[in-house]
Amino acid sequence: MTRRDRIIRTMRGEPVDRPPVNFYEINGLTENPADTDPFNVFNHPSWKPLIELARDKTDRIVLGKIPFPDGPWLPTYADMKWEHRTKGKSLFITGTQEAGGHKFTIRQRRDMDINTVWTLEHFLKDAGDLEKWLELPWEDFGRKPDVSGFLELEKKVGDTGVVMVDMADPLCGAAELFDMGDFTMVAFEERELFHKALERFARVIQERTEAVAAALPGRLWRIPGPEYATPPYLPPALFGEFVVRYDKPMIAAIHRSGGWARIHSHGRIRDVLPHIISAGADGIDPVEPPPQGDVELSYVREKYGRDLVLFGNIEITDIENLDEDGFRRKVAAALEEGTSGTGRGFVLQPSACPLGREISPRTMRNYGIMAEMAAGFAK
């Protein structure tokens, strides 16, 4: 059975020789150790063995971004003026936009040794900003997907895995306009106004989902964003209102093309799992155990495993910190719980990937244990 077959059969709910294993964002293809950019953490020599392990020994699921070159990615930032300034080992990015008599500002920071971007100042600060933003034009955006890069990635991956479409949902777009505290305040107290923001994003995202699904039928998709409506940020009752209402049409379009939709939601998912099922999702990641989440993998498998392929549930903190015996127990438990009873399928996968420039020997060893134990597991 090829690595690609193993993933496809898992998504279909068909028998496989063993559960697939992948390292989430680390795939041995899109990392570029040869890039000498000082902000590229992958050029540190310690990353090379991990990149090669992902390439050679994992069932690769490569995230594929789809550009829309016929217009702006999102109208929100179409007329932004950007300033990039390097200070020490940090890059500071400032975007400003003056429209409708109002000045919008976003400030971000990226450090050379950390593979992430921090938002220091968010685009919107309160409900008043949101009202002004909703008055701006919102029709100038790209509608025609360029899937050539996606197809090229698929050729490179070949039988070693699949390329997965990555499309954030309307809640992700609207929530990330705000600081987390401001988002929860506006979403909870100004629901009608916040729905206008969700509807605005939904017009763009639904049109794009349908276009991509038609151009790339039968693919696996990842939909990030639903975690913004999970506890403790918002009560579970709002998950149906803010997620299901807008994600269900996305998932329906994906299904019409023969594809599968995987919901990405960190944190406490126990009370929103029925909503995720009602949206029509085919899979969920990363199914985090306490204390990061609030549900054991065995519970999700028992209650919802017939509907959902479960991706998880190895925490990145355990990969980086546990000794060998402790980590082997974690992996053994995940494999056992993820395949217990009857269910659609299970994929052994971390909750995230390391962000630092240097991969420690312990981290490298534990990734090796994941690959080794999955390869030797049959049930």
What would you note in describing this structure?
By secondary structure, the protein is an alpha/beta fold. The protein has two domains: 3-76 and 124-375, Alpha-Beta Barrel (TIM Barrel); 77-123, no CATH class. The protein is 40% helix and 18% strand. It has 13 helices and eleven strands. The chain has a seven-stranded parallel β-sheet. Helix 7 (191-215) packs parallel to helix 8.
Strand-helix topology:
Layout (H helix, E strand, L loop, with lengths): L2 H10 L35 H10 L2 E5 L16 E7 L2 E10 L2 E10 L5 E5 L5 H8 L13 H10 L3 E6 L3 H6 L4 H10 L1 H25 L4 E5 L12 H20 L3 E5 L8 H7 L3 E3 L11 H8 L4 E6 L1 H6 L2 H15 L6 E6 L10 H15 L4
Parallel strand pairs: 1-6, 6-7, 7-8, 8-9, 9-10, 10-11
Antiparallel strand pairs: 2-3, 3-4, 4-5
Q: Give the CA-based shape.
A: globular
Helix/strand-derived category reads alpha/beta
Q: Please compute the radius of gyration using only Cα atoms.
A: 21 Å
Percent of residues in helices: 25-40%
Uncertain runs are: none
Order of strands side by side in the largest beta sheet?
Answer: 1-6-7-8-9-10-11
Strand % is: 15-25%
Number of strands: 11
Biggest beta sheet attributes: 7 strands, parallel
End-to-end gap: 15 Å
CATH class of the largest domain: Alpha Beta
CATH architectural grouping of the largest domain = Alpha-Beta Barrel
Encode the helix/strand succession as letters.
HHEEEEEHHEHHHEHEHEHEHHEH
Give the overall average pLDDT: 96
Helical run tally: 13
List the domain count as a whole number: 2
Q: Quote the CATH topology of the largest domain.
A: TIM Barrel
